[in-house]
Design a protein that fits this description.
Layout lengths: L13 H19 L1 E2 L1 H18 L14 E4 L5 H11 L39 H14 L6 E6 L6 H12 L5 E7 L8 H4 L7 H8 L2 E6 L3 H13 L6 E6 L7 H4 L7 E2 L2 H12 L5
Parallel strand pairs: 2-3, 3-4, 4-6, 5-6
Antiparallel strand pairs: 1-7
Helix pairs in contact: 1-2, 1-3, 1-10, 2-3, 2-8, 4-5
This protein binds thiamine diphosphate and magnesium ion (MG).
The site of thiamine diphosphate has 16 residues, from loops.
């Protein structure tokens, strides 16, 4: 491999990567009997494309200076990122059984100091994009060509600090910044649009109005995601880029997809096996 192209996805399909991410997340959820499983299942396709198509990184050297940064704003999505980092070989699979336990490297809310590949501590929502703006600016000043990806949630669009970061990124012409919004239309107490709508206009139009190159895609369609991630990286203008990913909470496990409250799920002991069996019934090549 040439220097820098370090993602390991060449011979494994993205379908298989997404399947493995869902499976790893379910196994972690089972350790605690509960967790942010709906988010992990929903965003698995976005993470598969991020880690196994878009990002340049070295699994054995997570702090390589040339890596693309992946900043997870949403600390409660840590289970999803661990699932991807395990599949990427940054974290070992046998640590799944420590998930959420004392002294684990995989606490339930993401902590940068604990976990290789967890670049920021994102539990207090609304700060990830601002941190990414600072990192993007720093990389440019050091002439480091790496990109900064920030995964944030639709709930974070209700935070004023997110929109300060949106404006700053344009001011600083951060063409190395790619925001990924997991728009599952859910937040802690119900539908996002009911809590604080970021419309009028489509979500993409809002970001465009601020000067971003914006795309809106089905976040559970791997091919659409590949196209959007490629276009985000290749866009020629001196502007930051956003991909708004419309995802479905609990995607891939039908009996969870239809649950009413999915922000934090408690799953009965026998249902974990049911969920895993459902995934295992059809293993993508
Ligand atoms: C600044 C801040 N306010 C409130 C919370 C509590 N909180 C944790 S997750 C969450 C929901 C945020 O929306 P979103 O991330 O879209 O939720 P999800 O899609 O995961 O249900 C809230 C309000 C927090 N972590 N940080
Ligand atoms: Mg949400």
């Amino acid at each position: 491999m040439s220097d820098g192209i370090e993602n390991t996805g060449a011979n494994v399909s993205l379908q298989r990567r997404a399947w493995a991410i869902r499976r790893n997340a379910l196994r972690m959820g089972e350790v605690q009997g509960q967790g942010y499983i709906g988010q992990a299942l929903g965003v698995a396709d976005v993470l598969a494309v991020s880690f196994f198509h878009a990002l340049r990184f070295r699994p054995q050297d997570p702090e390589w200076d040339g890596r693309d940064r992946f900043y997870l704003s949403i600390g409660h999505y840590a289970i999803a990122l661990y699932a991807a980092l395990i599949e990427a070989g940054v974290l070992p699979e046998d640590e799944i059984e420590t998930y959420g336990m004392d002294d684990s490297r995989m606490p339930m809310s993401g902590m940068a100091a604990y976990t290789p590949g967890m670049e920021i501590t994102g539990g207090s929502l609304g700060h990830g994009l601002g941190i990414a703006v600072g990192a993007g600016l720093g990389l440019k000043r050091k002439a480091n060509p790496a990109f900064v990806y920030n995964m944030l949630s639709d709930g974070e669009l209700g935070e004023g600090s997110t929109w300060e970061a949106v404006m700053s990124a344009v001011q600083w012409e951060l063409d190395n910044l790619i925001a990924i919004v997991d728009f599952n239309n859910q937040q802690a107490d119900g539908p996002t649009r009911a809590a604080l709508a970021t419309e009028p206009g489509t979500e993409a139009a809002k970001w465009e109005a601020f000067g971003w190159f914006a795309q809106e895609v089905d976040g559970n369609d791997l091919q659409a995601l590949v196209r959007a991630f490629d276009a985000a990286r290749a866009h020629p203008g001196p502007v930051p880029r956003v991909i708004i990913c419309n995802t479905m909470m609990c995607k891939g496990v039908p009996f969870l997809e239809t649950r009413d409250k999915t922000h934090f799920i408690r799953v009965e002991a026998d249902e974990w096996a049911k969920a895993l069996n459902h995934l295992d019934a059809e293993v993508p090549l």
